[in-house]
């Protein structure tokens, strides 16, 4: 009887854990998946069985998912960025023009979080993307550029956001001002060429949406400073 009860308790716990996470989107890389799942804002984007490849023209290559982000989520994917590409950016919580950007800066060997805008009229603004708020005040950390696959994990829980690359805790943000709007869309921007694969969006709730206790930054966050765009 004790064994039966223990088995039932473990089974219930397993179902509970599964109920706290749900996959909302997973890219299949079929021939029509770009048109079906994404909006191409700019640049040259192609898909095959290996992944999605983006290449800029005179401006950023920008790809936005048609899937809306939940309040709390985990976004995972892998990227392989050409060494000549200056920036690779993850777009999250895009509402209207505003979004939260995670920038892999290969020129400055840095990962940064920035308060960004994606403009519908790049001719008027000079380019598609600008940092438009909290300029010079958002977190930045040093990270040496490597021409290898970078496995990303981005977790949003409440007003906190955590980022891992290749299983290492890289950078985080506690949004005390509320400038990161709930939901919105996610996507990618490249100032050069990169390949993206294994894109998966997971909705979390309950214990699964709590801040990760094991998240410990290995690199110190750079002190904020004011810079002009």
Features:
229 residues; mainly beta; eight-stranded antiparallel beta sheet
Describe the structure.
This protein is mostly beta strands. The N and C termini lie far apart (68 Å). The protein has 3 helices and 16 strands. Strands 1, 3, 4, 6, 12, 13, 14 and 16 form an 8-stranded antiparallel sheet that branches. Strands 2, 5, 7, 8, 9, 10, 11 and 15 form an 8-stranded antiparallel sheet that branches. It has helices at 2-19, 33-37, 122-125; strands spanning 21-26, 38-42, 44-48, 51-55, 61-68, 73-81, 87-95, 98-105, 110-118, 129-133, 140-142, 150-157, 160-165, 168-174, 185-190, 193-204.
Write the layout of secondary structure elements.
Elements: H1 2-19, E1 21-26, H2 33-37, E2 38-42, E3 44-48, E4 51-55, E5 61-68, E6 73-81, E7 87-95, E8 98-105, E9 110-118, H3 122-125, E10 129-133, E11 140-142, E12 150-157, E13 160-165, E14 168-174, E15 185-190, E16 193-204
Antiparallel strand pairs: 1-16, 2-5, 3-4, 4-16, 5-15, 6-12, 6-16, 7-8, 7-15, 8-9, 9-10, 9-11, 12-13, 13-14
Please identify the structural class as seen in this structure: mainly beta
Indicate the percent of residues in helices: 10-25%
What is the string of SSEs from the N terminus onward? HEHEEEEEEEEHEEEEEEE
Question: What is the helix tally?
Answer: 3
Number of E-type strands: 16
Largest sheet composition? 8 strands, antiparallel
- In round numbers, the mean pLDDT is 88
User: What gap, in angstroms, lies between the N and C termini?
Assistant: 68 Å
Query: If you compute it from the alpha carbons, what radius of gyration comes out, rounded to the nearest whole angstrom?
Result: 19 Å
**What's the shape?**
globular
Beta content comes to: over 45%
Low-confidence stretches: 4-17
